[in-house]
Amino acid sequence: MITYEDELKQEARKEGREEGKREGRQEEKIEITRNLIKLGIPLDFIKKATGLSEKKVLEIKEKLEKE
Description:
The chain is mainly alpha-helical and 67 residues long. It has helices at residues 4-38, 43-50, 54-66. The chain has one domain (4-66). Helix 1 (4-38) runs antiparallel to helix 2 (43-50).
């Protein structure tokens, strides 16, 4: 018999996995953005390709320039 507590634990694990996947996709987008910037790809193309905001793309670009 599955208890209410078991159901809560299962739901928490599921939510944790989903959050981890979202974070992983975001990290991948950032890495792709870094690579595209290094290749000299125009920012408008990067925004369209990654779905990141202009603010985020510029933020990544600024960080790269400081490295």
